[in-house]
Amino acid sequence: MQSLLETPGLVSLLWRSTNRRAKTAGGGIFRMFKLKTGFTSGCKMAALAGRHNKSLLSGNSTTITLFGYRRGRMSLAIQENPTSAPIFLLELPMLTGTLHKEMASGLVKIALESETKTHKKRLVEECMWAVYCNGRKSGYSVRKKQASDEERHVMQLLRGVSMGAGVLPCASEKDVADGELTYMRARFERVVGSKDSEALYMINPDGTGVPELSIFLVRMK
Question: Does residue 135 have a pLDDT over 70?
Fold first, then answer.
């Protein structure tokens, strides 16, 4: 089987991610995410970072939210805009705390690989995905066709937030045992390599610096 890093389309997208800007990252959303313990609710975060910036809402950009309980798994949601339903939603095979540590260490690259042989579906409609984080395989995830009550709760709380990071109120008291419900939301530039590959590069609030988070979707041929 052709390995993930041998896929020509992905190699091109990875090269773009590494070399697209010469300046180093200036903090941005990741710095905000590291300070998330200072926030107590999505409403407070909305007041701080919910103002829409027209430069971040271009036609080739999309909204991505990472959220999860500290002692649970992290979920990934891709939306056309902060108020729309997710067009791609899955629970990543990694603990929230593990991804927090990756974010604290610097740049993060998440690659999602589909081994489906048919090409009749759109890339985001594929169901089974192998997940890699910074080159290390984390496991497998299945795309969700419908959001759960918990996930809809998160999307509803964040309807007024275009970018930011913080802690959200839990949906119920029983969820408190899993720790705080954390989130990070940002706009991403969408770059399509082919019908079988595309990349999403996080747009820093000031528009400068290397993307702190890049997400790659690849369908193996």
Answer: yes
